[in-house]
Amino acid sequence: xxxxxxxxxxxxxxxxxxxxxxxxxxxxxxxxxxxxxxxxxxxxxxxxxxxxxxxxxxxxxxxxxxxxxxxxxxxxxxxxxxxxxxxxxxxxxxxxxxxxxxxxxxxxxxxxxxxxxxxxxxxxxxxxxxxxxxxxxxxxxxxxxxxxxxxxxxxxxxxxxxxxxxxxxxxxxxxxxxxxxxxxxxxxxxxxxxxxxxxxxxxxxxxxxxxxxxxxxxxxxxxxxxxxxxxxxxxxxxxxxxxxxxxxxxxxxxxxxxxxxxxxxxxxxxxxxxxxxxxxxxxxxxxxxxxxxxxxx
Length: 297
Known about the structure:
Layout: E1 5-9, E2 14-18, H1 23-31, H2 33-43, H3 46-56, H4 65-72, H5 89-93, E3 110-112, E4 117-122, E5 131-133, E6 136-138, H6 140-144, H7 147-151, E7 157-163, E8 170-172, E9 177-179, E10 183-185, H8 194-197, H9 203-206, E11 209-216, E12 219-226, E13 233-236, E14 249-254, E15 258-264, E16 269-271, H10 273-280, E17 285-287, E18 292-296
Protein backbone atom coordinates (compact mmCIF):
# COMPACT_ATOMS: atom_id res chain seq x y z
CA UNK A 1 0.00 0.00 0.00
CA UNK A 2 1.34 3.42 -0.97
CA UNK A 3 2.44 5.55 1.97
CA UNK A 4 1.12 8.77 0.47
CA UNK A 5 -1.07 10.23 -2.25
CA UNK A 6 0.45 12.93 -4.45
CA UNK A 7 -1.67 15.26 -6.57
CA UNK A 8 -1.04 18.23 -8.84
CA UNK A 9 -2.29 21.53 -7.37
CA UNK A 10 -3.44 23.65 -10.32
CA UNK A 11 -3.29 26.85 -8.27
CA UNK A 12 0.14 26.37 -6.73
CA UNK A 13 1.38 24.67 -9.94
CA UNK A 14 3.16 22.03 -7.94
CA UNK A 15 2.89 18.43 -6.78
CA UNK A 16 1.65 18.21 -3.19
CA UNK A 17 1.04 15.44 -0.67
CA UNK A 18 -2.63 14.97 0.16
CA UNK A 19 -3.44 14.50 3.85
CA UNK A 20 -5.23 11.20 4.49
CA UNK A 21 -8.42 11.63 6.46
CA UNK A 22 -9.06 8.61 8.68
CA UNK A 23 -5.75 6.99 7.71
CA UNK A 24 -5.83 4.54 10.63
CA UNK A 25 -9.25 3.27 9.52
CA UNK A 26 -8.20 2.89 5.87
CA UNK A 27 -5.05 0.95 6.81
CA UNK A 28 -6.94 -1.33 9.17
CA UNK A 29 -9.95 -1.87 6.88
CA UNK A 30 -8.04 -2.47 3.65
CA UNK A 31 -4.40 -3.39 4.46
CA UNK A 32 -5.01 -5.62 7.48
CA UNK A 33 -6.38 -9.13 6.67
CA UNK A 34 -8.71 -9.12 9.67
CA UNK A 35 -9.79 -5.57 8.89
CA UNK A 36 -10.61 -6.53 5.29
CA UNK A 37 -12.86 -9.34 6.51
CA UNK A 38 -14.59 -6.99 8.95
CA UNK A 39 -14.99 -4.33 6.25
CA UNK A 40 -16.52 -6.85 3.85
CA UNK A 41 -18.94 -8.08 6.51
CA UNK A 42 -19.89 -4.80 8.18
CA UNK A 43 -18.08 -1.70 6.91
CA UNK A 44 -19.59 -1.68 3.41
CA UNK A 45 -23.13 -2.04 4.74
CA UNK A 46 -25.48 0.94 4.63
CA UNK A 47 -26.25 0.47 8.35
CA UNK A 48 -22.60 1.21 9.21
CA UNK A 49 -22.78 4.54 7.38
CA UNK A 50 -26.19 5.37 8.84
CA UNK A 51 -24.76 4.96 12.34
CA UNK A 52 -21.85 7.29 11.48
CA UNK A 53 -24.33 9.78 10.01
CA UNK A 54 -26.45 9.59 13.17
CA UNK A 55 -23.52 10.70 15.33
CA UNK A 56 -22.58 13.43 12.82
CA UNK A 57 -26.10 14.86 13.24
CA UNK A 58 -25.97 15.04 17.03
CA UNK A 59 -25.35 18.49 18.59
CA UNK A 60 -22.27 17.13 20.42
CA UNK A 61 -20.62 16.53 17.02
CA UNK A 62 -20.17 20.31 16.62
CA UNK A 63 -17.16 20.02 18.93
CA UNK A 64 -15.32 18.22 16.13
CA UNK A 65 -15.66 21.09 13.63
CA UNK A 66 -12.81 23.37 14.77
CA UNK A 67 -10.26 20.53 15.26
CA UNK A 68 -11.21 19.22 11.80
CA UNK A 69 -10.73 22.67 10.22
CA UNK A 70 -7.34 23.12 11.88
CA UNK A 71 -6.06 19.65 10.99
CA UNK A 72 -7.01 19.77 7.31
CA UNK A 73 -6.71 23.49 6.59
CA UNK A 74 -10.33 24.07 5.58
CA UNK A 75 -10.86 27.67 4.43
CA UNK A 76 -13.41 29.21 6.79
CA UNK A 77 -13.54 32.38 4.65
CA UNK A 78 -15.38 30.36 1.98
CA UNK A 79 -18.20 29.34 4.34
CA UNK A 80 -21.62 30.98 4.00
CA UNK A 81 -21.85 31.65 7.75
CA UNK A 82 -19.57 31.83 10.82
CA UNK A 83 -18.26 28.51 12.10
CA UNK A 84 -19.92 28.88 15.50
CA UNK A 85 -23.34 28.88 13.81
CA UNK A 86 -23.01 25.29 12.58
CA UNK A 87 -24.86 23.22 15.18
CA UNK A 88 -23.71 19.75 13.99
CA UNK A 89 -20.75 18.34 12.09
CA UNK A 90 -23.16 17.20 9.37
CA UNK A 91 -24.39 20.76 8.87
CA UNK A 92 -20.80 21.93 8.47
CA UNK A 93 -19.98 19.03 6.15
CA UNK A 94 -22.88 19.90 3.80
CA UNK A 95 -22.21 23.64 4.11
CA UNK A 96 -23.02 26.22 1.47
CA UNK A 97 -20.33 28.63 0.32
CA UNK A 98 -20.56 32.41 0.44
CA UNK A 99 -21.59 34.12 -2.82
CA UNK A 100 -18.57 34.54 -5.10
CA UNK A 101 -16.42 31.95 -3.33
CA UNK A 102 -16.44 29.78 -6.49
CA UNK A 103 -16.74 31.89 -9.68
CA UNK A 104 -18.30 29.85 -12.49
CA UNK A 105 -16.48 29.68 -15.84
CA UNK A 106 -18.62 31.78 -18.14
CA UNK A 107 -17.67 30.31 -21.52
CA UNK A 108 -20.43 28.35 -23.28
CA UNK A 109 -17.78 26.19 -24.96
CA UNK A 110 -16.34 24.92 -21.68
CA UNK A 111 -17.11 22.26 -19.09
CA UNK A 112 -16.60 23.42 -15.51
CA UNK A 113 -15.61 21.35 -12.49
CA UNK A 114 -18.80 20.05 -10.82
CA UNK A 115 -17.17 19.97 -7.38
CA UNK A 116 -14.01 20.74 -5.46
CA UNK A 117 -11.84 17.68 -5.97
CA UNK A 118 -9.04 15.79 -7.64
CA UNK A 119 -9.61 15.15 -11.35
CA UNK A 120 -8.47 12.28 -13.56
CA UNK A 121 -9.21 12.06 -17.30
CA UNK A 122 -9.78 8.73 -19.07
CA UNK A 123 -9.87 8.76 -22.91
CA UNK A 124 -11.03 6.15 -25.42
CA UNK A 125 -13.70 4.43 -23.36
CA UNK A 126 -15.05 1.02 -24.34
CA UNK A 127 -18.30 0.02 -22.66
CA UNK A 128 -17.29 -3.63 -22.17
CA UNK A 129 -13.60 -3.03 -21.43
CA UNK A 130 -12.10 -2.61 -17.97
CA UNK A 131 -9.96 0.52 -17.88
CA UNK A 132 -7.19 0.52 -15.27
CA UNK A 133 -5.34 3.63 -14.19
CA UNK A 134 -3.72 4.42 -10.83
CA UNK A 135 -5.28 1.36 -9.15
CA UNK A 136 -8.77 2.21 -10.42
CA UNK A 137 -10.78 -0.14 -12.60
CA UNK A 138 -13.73 1.26 -14.50
CA UNK A 139 -16.07 -0.73 -16.72
CA UNK A 140 -18.75 1.54 -18.16
CA UNK A 141 -21.40 -1.16 -18.64
CA UNK A 142 -21.15 -2.16 -14.97
CA UNK A 143 -20.97 1.42 -13.76
CA UNK A 144 -24.22 2.31 -15.55
CA UNK A 145 -25.88 -1.13 -15.29
CA UNK A 146 -27.20 -0.43 -18.78
CA UNK A 147 -25.44 -1.93 -21.80
CA UNK A 148 -27.22 0.14 -24.46
CA UNK A 149 -26.53 3.40 -22.61
CA UNK A 150 -22.90 2.39 -22.04
CA UNK A 151 -22.51 1.81 -25.78
CA UNK A 152 -23.34 5.50 -26.41
CA UNK A 153 -20.02 6.35 -24.78
CA UNK A 154 -17.85 3.91 -26.76
CA UNK A 155 -14.83 5.90 -27.93
CA UNK A 156 -15.77 8.71 -25.57
CA UNK A 157 -14.12 9.87 -22.36
CA UNK A 158 -14.60 10.04 -18.62
CA UNK A 159 -13.65 12.65 -16.07
CA UNK A 160 -13.40 11.32 -12.51
CA UNK A 161 -13.60 13.75 -9.58
CA UNK A 162 -12.60 12.42 -6.16
CA UNK A 163 -13.72 14.41 -3.13
CA UNK A 164 -11.91 14.12 0.20
CA UNK A 165 -13.86 14.37 3.48
CA UNK A 166 -12.48 17.87 4.10
CA UNK A 167 -13.75 19.25 0.76
CA UNK A 168 -16.87 21.30 0.05
CA UNK A 169 -19.42 18.53 -0.60
CA UNK A 170 -22.10 20.09 -2.75
CA UNK A 171 -21.95 19.28 -6.46
CA UNK A 172 -23.06 21.36 -9.43
CA UNK A 173 -23.91 21.09 -13.12
CA UNK A 174 -20.80 21.26 -15.34
CA UNK A 175 -22.59 23.00 -18.23
CA UNK A 176 -25.97 24.26 -19.42
CA UNK A 177 -28.17 21.19 -19.83
CA UNK A 178 -31.55 19.53 -19.37
CA UNK A 179 -31.15 16.77 -16.76
CA UNK A 180 -33.39 13.75 -16.43
CA UNK A 181 -34.29 11.91 -13.25
CA UNK A 182 -31.52 10.55 -11.02
CA UNK A 183 -31.54 6.72 -11.11
CA UNK A 184 -30.43 4.87 -7.97
CA UNK A 185 -27.89 2.06 -8.45
CA UNK A 186 -25.70 -0.14 -6.23
CA UNK A 187 -25.84 -1.10 -2.55
CA UNK A 188 -22.36 -1.18 -1.02
CA UNK A 189 -20.46 1.72 0.53
CA UNK A 190 -16.71 1.06 0.23
CA UNK A 191 -14.17 3.84 0.60
CA UNK A 192 -13.25 5.58 -2.67
CA UNK A 193 -9.82 6.72 -1.46
CA UNK A 194 -7.00 5.44 -3.74
CA UNK A 195 -5.53 3.59 -0.76
CA UNK A 196 -8.76 1.59 -0.41
CA UNK A 197 -9.39 1.21 -4.16
CA UNK A 198 -6.03 -0.50 -4.56
CA UNK A 199 -7.53 -3.36 -2.53
CA UNK A 200 -11.11 -3.00 -3.82
CA UNK A 201 -10.66 -1.78 -7.43
CA UNK A 202 -14.25 -2.41 -8.50
CA UNK A 203 -15.83 -0.23 -5.81
CA UNK A 204 -16.57 2.60 -8.25
CA UNK A 205 -19.31 0.54 -9.87
CA UNK A 206 -20.37 -1.53 -6.85
CA UNK A 207 -20.97 1.35 -4.47
CA UNK A 208 -24.31 3.04 -3.99
CA UNK A 209 -24.57 5.70 -6.70
CA UNK A 210 -26.96 7.84 -8.71
CA UNK A 211 -26.98 8.26 -12.49
CA UNK A 212 -28.34 11.33 -14.28
CA UNK A 213 -28.51 11.64 -18.06
CA UNK A 214 -28.21 15.19 -19.38
CA UNK A 215 -28.86 16.70 -22.80
CA UNK A 216 -26.25 19.40 -23.50
CA UNK A 217 -24.84 21.33 -26.46
CA UNK A 218 -21.87 18.92 -26.57
CA UNK A 219 -24.14 15.85 -26.71
CA UNK A 220 -25.41 13.53 -24.02
CA UNK A 221 -23.56 13.51 -20.70
CA UNK A 222 -23.94 10.91 -17.96
CA UNK A 223 -23.20 12.22 -14.48
CA UNK A 224 -22.73 9.58 -11.78
CA UNK A 225 -22.41 10.45 -8.09
CA UNK A 226 -20.80 7.61 -6.13
CA UNK A 227 -21.23 7.22 -2.38
CA UNK A 228 -18.62 5.81 -0.02
CA UNK A 229 -18.03 4.58 3.51
CA UNK A 230 -19.59 7.03 5.99
CA UNK A 231 -21.61 8.74 3.24
CA UNK A 232 -25.10 8.74 4.73
CA UNK A 233 -26.81 9.61 1.47
CA UNK A 234 -26.63 11.34 -1.90
CA UNK A 235 -29.23 14.13 -2.00
CA UNK A 236 -30.42 15.70 -5.26
CA UNK A 237 -31.71 19.28 -5.07
CA UNK A 238 -32.44 20.02 -8.76
CA UNK A 239 -35.71 19.76 -10.72
CA UNK A 240 -35.81 17.15 -13.46
CA UNK A 241 -36.43 17.92 -17.13
CA UNK A 242 -35.91 21.66 -16.66
CA UNK A 243 -33.08 23.65 -18.20
CA UNK A 244 -30.23 24.36 -15.77
CA UNK A 245 -27.32 26.74 -16.04
CA UNK A 246 -23.69 25.85 -15.60
CA UNK A 247 -22.83 26.04 -11.91
CA UNK A 248 -26.39 25.53 -10.63
CA UNK A 249 -26.45 23.24 -7.62
CA UNK A 250 -27.36 19.63 -8.41
CA UNK A 251 -27.14 18.09 -4.94
CA UNK A 252 -24.84 17.16 -2.08
CA UNK A 253 -23.14 14.24 -0.34
CA UNK A 254 -23.97 13.76 3.34
CA UNK A 255 -20.81 12.97 5.37
CA UNK A 256 -17.75 11.21 3.94
CA UNK A 257 -15.49 11.09 0.90
CA UNK A 258 -17.16 10.60 -2.47
CA UNK A 259 -16.67 10.50 -6.25
CA UNK A 260 -18.32 12.05 -9.31
CA UNK A 261 -17.89 10.56 -12.79
CA UNK A 262 -18.76 12.46 -15.99
CA UNK A 263 -19.08 10.46 -19.22
CA UNK A 264 -18.92 12.15 -22.63
CA UNK A 265 -19.63 10.86 -26.13
CA UNK A 266 -16.90 10.29 -28.71
CA UNK A 267 -15.30 13.56 -29.88
CA UNK A 268 -17.50 15.75 -27.68
CA UNK A 269 -14.86 17.28 -25.39
CA UNK A 270 -11.15 17.75 -24.85
CA UNK A 271 -9.45 18.11 -21.43
CA UNK A 272 -7.47 21.19 -20.53
CA UNK A 273 -3.69 20.60 -20.85
CA UNK A 274 -2.95 20.23 -17.13
CA UNK A 275 -5.73 17.65 -16.69
CA UNK A 276 -4.54 15.69 -19.74
CA UNK A 277 -0.81 15.80 -18.99
CA UNK A 278 -1.05 14.77 -15.35
CA UNK A 279 -3.72 12.15 -16.03
CA UNK A 280 -1.37 10.51 -18.54
CA UNK A 281 1.09 10.20 -15.65
CA UNK A 282 -1.59 8.75 -13.38
CA UNK A 283 -1.71 11.86 -11.19
CA UNK A 284 -4.91 13.66 -10.23
CA UNK A 285 -5.24 17.45 -10.61
CA UNK A 286 -6.86 19.48 -7.83
CA UNK A 287 -9.50 21.85 -9.20
CA UNK A 288 -12.13 23.97 -7.46
CA UNK A 289 -15.78 23.85 -8.44
CA UNK A 290 -16.67 26.20 -11.30
CA UNK A 291 -13.22 26.35 -12.91
CA UNK A 292 -12.88 25.06 -16.48
CA UNK A 293 -11.68 21.49 -16.86
CA UNK A 294 -12.66 20.62 -20.46
CA UNK A 295 -13.42 22.27 -23.81
CA UNK A 296 -16.34 21.35 -26.04
CA UNK A 297 -15.07 20.15 -29.43
